[in-house]
Amino acid sequence: MTIGLYYNKSDERKLNKDLDAIATYNGYLKNECSIQNPVVYIEGAFNIGNNINANYMFLPDYRRYYYITDITQVRANLVKISGRVDVLMSFKDEIQNSIGVVRKQEHNYSLFLDDGSLKVYQDKLIICKEFPNGFPRENDRFILVTAGG
Amino acid sequence: MATKQIVPLNSAKILHLYNSDNVEYYVGLGYFLPINQNIYGLCSPYILLQKYYISNTLKTQGLTGDWFDDNGNKYSFSASGIVITTPSDTTKTIELPDPDSDKTAILFFTYSEADGFCIAVGKNAIPYDYSSQYSTYQTAQRTANDYDYAYELCDTISATNRDTYGWGTVLIVPDYNNITPNSPVRSAMCLWTNKGNYSVISDTTSFNMQSLIPINFNGFNSPLVDSPDDPYQPGGTTTPGGGQGSFDRSSDPIDVPGLPLLSAIDTGFVSLWRPSPTELINLYNYMWSNAFDLESFKKIFANPIDAIMGFGIIPLNPVTGAARSLKIGNIDTGVNVTPITEQYYQVDCGTLYLDNYFDTYLEFEPYSTLEIFLPFCGCMQLSADDFYRRKKEYPGGGKINVKYNVDILSGSCVAFISCYDANGATTMTYEFNGNLLTQIPITGNDFSGLYNAVLGIAGNVISGVAHAAAGNAAGILGDAVNAAHNVTSAKPSINRSGTIGGSYGLLANRKPFLIRNIPREAVAWAQNTFQGYPSHITTVIRSINGYTEFEKVYTDNIPASDNELKEIVQILETGVIL
After folding, report:
1. At residue B143, does pLDDT exceed 80?
2. Between the N and C ends of chain A, which has fewer C-beta atoms within 10 Å?
3. Facing residues of B538 across strands?
4. Mutate which of A92, A131, A133 to disrupt the B interface (most B C-beta within 10 Å)?
């Protein structure tokens, strides 16, 4: 079984991971193996020091990418690598073809929707705007109302 | 040949229309019509008239003119569709299928309830005028081969399989009697065959045209099952509903009304004067001189003051005529004073442009509030929703205008606050009343009343000062506003005998001003990158990037295990970076 080791520089939530390839090894399985949480063994030339940054792997046989959850030195020439499937990277093309209703988005949003996520300070801005015209004091006049003409 | 019959769907109806010659035609709706024993056609709601064929471009030919049904409803046909005019003059338009659309549509025409005529329209259906075909058929009195026109239909729909089957899409509306321009139209695929079998495929979501309304296709050709006795049955059963709104956003402009046409001045019973201080002194001297014929005056009035119906100060310069001798009652004083010739005035305080501060929901209530101080009326609460507009829809921003209609005889004034709608039309939204006449006491009793009223307002002003001393800036403004409100809301009484009102309006601010109360947004740096902003759009995931949370997502065609699919959905709903 081919095992591609990578250094994953991306957040787990990122669909398309930014990977640095480290090395490719031939490994094997022992006993039964979950496709979602596989445990693979590499025997021989694996050097933990050279692969200390490996936090990600690709198993072509399973067509899945995995987060490396643990690397265990079983004995001198045997290393056990445990993984957890990264469903995003493994099925990124299919996911990208999916359709959904977006609740929140980084770029494509409507600021006229209020979902309560935007906070406001307790104090408020108070702005006064005066109208251009009014009743200027210069126009004040006496008025006398009398009966008859 | 099999006997033709009409097999109704559950909601099937047939409409009888009459032309101007009172010739009756049939328009079927929702009928499943067996053309012969093996060939079936599914009628669309747009089954039209025997004589009037829709051309290959669907531009009407001969469909003009008025048509009426049994109930007197008027039907007319236009290039864009069928217009149904009900007796109440409510016009309803049914859009015909777009002939240029790649959605094949079959319109089924009937001549009688037992016969039918098919026409296919649509890009894939090779639009064709079947007039001649029908004419041939009709000439043969439908004895030659009913199969012919079904054959043509099949030919149109599936030229390579004309002998076996044809398929097409029909359009169906669920309730013919309640068709509106926004009636949901359901597309359905139907299959014709002359090989002894037929089928109707009702689930054709891929032919989605508008909102889909399910129709029970399994219901045709089967008797209705009576429901068991149910005490609630007379009340009817549940039905789908809603969504029939007109979405009519038109708004009538509400203008500031004009000034009244009838004036007290025109009656001759009262006169209005605009005396200068000098003229007032001359008048005073005259009234306290021997020249004032008190005896003659008392024949009409008990007291000289009775003839002076009002005296005060108004904050505007009235329209006047040429100076003439002032008369008190019928006594000519010989004092030349300028008469006022107009009782009503309109004062335009101008327009303010309210540019959006955020252009977000924070612009509106309850986040933002709006108050206005109106001279002689007071401080009034407005709704920010009435004045702010989305900048995209109305780039000029919200406009607000203040006008006063004034009656200087009584001092009454009405302030009109107008806003502008999205189309720029003026829409009046608020009217406040007040009084701008400051009455001047001309007797001792009047003055004591004025003095007491002024003392009463002093307490409010002092209260505002106390807050200012505490250093509360907001409090200063608020109390100042409140003080202004208190001052000007103490409306002067309107009393023709000269009882004092308030002089507060003269002391307060003379220009209207707006007070915008705007929240301070607390947006974290790159908040949208980390948690996004509200979106609520439906999209293919491929078309967006960046941080995204989904409300709901379809995960079709992902070759993952059940647990993996659940995890994918969970991640997409809680936040993913695309």
Report:
1. no
2. C
3. A101
4. A131
**Rounded to a whole number, what is the distance in Å from the CA of B244 to chain A's nearest CA?**
24
Strands ordered across the beta sheet of B67-69? B40-42, B24-34, B7-18, B67-69, B74-78, B81-85, B91-95
CA distances from B449 to B82, B174, B439, B507 (A): 75, 75, 11, 18
Shortest Cα distance, chain A CAs vs residue B442, angstroms:
11
- Cβ–Cβ under 8 Å, residues A3 and A38: no
* Residue of chain B nearest A140, judged by CA positions: B315
Burial of residue B118 (number of CB atoms within 10 Å: 0-12, 13-18, 19+): buried
Residues in B 528-557 with any Cβ partner in A closer than 8 A? 528-529, 531-542, 544-557
Q: Do A91 and B558 touch (CB under 8 A)?
A: yes
- Please name the amino acid found at residue B255: D
Q: Residue B149 in contact with residue B162, Cβ under 8 Å?
A: no
Does B577 contact A121 at a Cβ distance shorter than 8 Å? no
Q: What is the pLDDT of residue A86?
A: 96
Return d(Cα B247, Cα B244) in angstroms, integer. Answer: 9
Better pLDDT: A128 or B61? A128
Residue B366, preceding peptide bond in cis (omega within 30° of 0): yes
Which residue(s) pair with B324 in the sheet? Answer: B337
- Token representation of residue B391: 């900048």
Helices B473-489, B444-469: axis angle to 10 degrees equals 170
What per-residue confidence (pLDDT) applies to B355?
Answer: 81
CA distance B359 to chain A (A): 8
Tens digits of residue pLDDT in B316-346: 999 999 999 988 777 788 889 999 999 999 9
Does A104 sit within 8 Å of B408, measured CB to CB? no
Candidates B329, B354, B523; nearest CB to A147: B329
**Amino acid at the residue B530:** F
Three-state DSSP class for residue B430: strand
Tokens of B248: 């009519």
pLDDT over threshold 60, residue B174:
no
B308·A146 Cβ contact <8 A = yes
**Chain A: residue whose CA lies nearest to B332:** A149
Find out whether B167 and B124 touch, Cβ atoms under 8 Å. Answer: no
Can you tell me whether residue B260 is helix, strand or coil? coil
SS3 A39: strand
